[in-house]
Amino acid sequence: MTGIWIARIGHRLLHRETFTMMLSPAIADLQFETATRGTTRPGDYCGVLRALGGALWFDVSGDLLALKSDVEMIALLTLLQTIYYTFMLVLLSGFGAARLSAIDLDAAVVTRALSYVGGVGIACLVTSFACFWPPRRTYEAPIED
Amino acid sequence: MLDLLESSERYGLELVDASGGRLKRGSIYVTLGRMEAKGFVASRQEDRPAGAIGLPRRLYRPTPYGLKVRDAYRLLRDALALKPAEAQ
Predict the structure, then answer these.
(1) Fewer beta carbons within 10 Å, N or C terminal of chain A?
(2) Which chain B residues have a beta carbon less than 8 Å from that of A23?
């Protein structure tokens, strides 16, 4: 069935309403066009993929707005995680108090240390977002071929 | 889009064809979805015979509210297009 793989991807990634309102009609029209014309042009697929992209953007932007009320909790969770993992990394990398005190704290070292902490912070931010992200659809019966 | 829908219920693809290239099939469904969320258009799934395969197509029609918004927009656009001398 034409476009069924796009439907499967959309089914997994999009909210139920978004799938029904934005992607499903695009695929249905593609299937209708293919059935009446007998062939599918690459441009038609591009149109449906763009609809998928637009629907995904619609969902992600809506989800981000929905997270507004949880910003403080996300920030706190990220901060706690960053402190914890940074401390653990310093500990596990063999830096004792003696070695740390021996490091000459010039600008380059501080910049590098901050970039490491920043990296850890970004990773922690991702996990915090994952905890608060609005739930997606539960898995339903797969779309029939 | 509301102008195109005023005469009859249409599918997304029909709107693309009727627009003469002004509407693209990549963006029309997202736009229609947003318009429906705002209450400008309403939609329903097409009636299909039993055992039909594939996803059902969706038909769109404007809501009375959508037509009012369109009329208000037209009025505003026309008023802004008037030259100061014409407006008096």
Answers:
(1) C
(2) 29
